[in-house]
Amino acid sequence: MNLYLGIDGGGTKTKVTIIDKREQLIYENTSGPSSTDSVSLDETITAINEAIKPYFDKNPKRKIDGCFAGLSGIVFPTDSLDVERGLRDLPYFKEDALIIVKNDMENSLYSGACFEEGIALISGTGMVAFGKDIHKSHKAGGWGYKEGELGSGFHLGTEAIRYAIRAYDGRYEKDAFANEIAKSIGLNQPSDIVYVMNDFYDDRTRVASLAPIVTMFANQDNQHAKKIIDLATDECALAVKAVYNYISMKNKTCVIVGSLGNSRGYFKEQLQLKIKAIDPYINIINPILDPSFAAAMMAKKNDQNL
């Protein structure tokens, strides 16, 4: 039996999927984080091993023919090579198994069944646009929270904190939006601002957790919340346009991935309008495949192309 392994690894969890040559689901499982910018290389391999091991404990004679691993945090070729070497040390692969390790933004593209060409916009905690055609690929955004992660949940959260601080020191009038953000971050009076910023400064996930408050108030027509979303959707569209201008697609498809990018209401409406303004013929879709299943399909495709 030919087996193909797909891995989708992020900062909170790792999901693995094994399929056969008919693309039938054989096994799937989840484990802890494997993002290479969140945990060590040993922890990355351990998380993947923990997810795969139960299957091979029950089927010790079977081996994997091909693997595609999409992991958050992969930036340089050396990152990919380090993880590939770690995977080859596991006892589950055939000696000639093709193992490919890329950034998880590729899984996101494949989750839209865009294996040959297309664009993926990931807008969740972070933001990145990635696309490819048959000859080349390109990435815009996704350079880390210290760059700003413009167009992301982190971006919304950062701007919301800034707005609440201005409201509480008198630069804006307090409203329900400012009060809700202040309550969430423990801002009771202007003198709390220093402590709040020190507490939140390096906590990317915590800042991004404020994004649903922004989208909720924007959907209630709060002008300050809508202004924040206008800025973020501008940045998402700008990233999509950068990728669109670099690649050449026959079938113009953009798959939008992530909780923010697919949030109902003002954010999604503005985002789709701005993407359509780039080219009205772009087909905007939601993911149709689980990212780890899509990665397994890509592993099979790569193996058959050898």
UniProtKB/TrEMBL annotation:
Keyword Electron transport: no
GO molecular function: kinase activity
Gene3D superfamilies according to UniProt: 3.30.420.40
Entry-linked Pfam families: BcrAD_BadFG
Keywords, sorted A to Z: Kinase, Transferase
Residue stretches making up the ATPase BadF/BadG/BcrA/BcrD type domain: 5-299
InterPro entries assigned: ATPase_BadF (IPR002731), ATPase_NBD (IPR043129), Euk-type_GlcNAc_Kinase (IPR052519)
Keyword Nuclease included in the entry's annotation: no
PANTHER family: N-ACETYL-D-GLUCOSAMINE KINASE
Protein name according to UniProt: N-acetylmuramic acid/N-acetylglucosamine kinase
Organism: Mariniplasma anaerobium
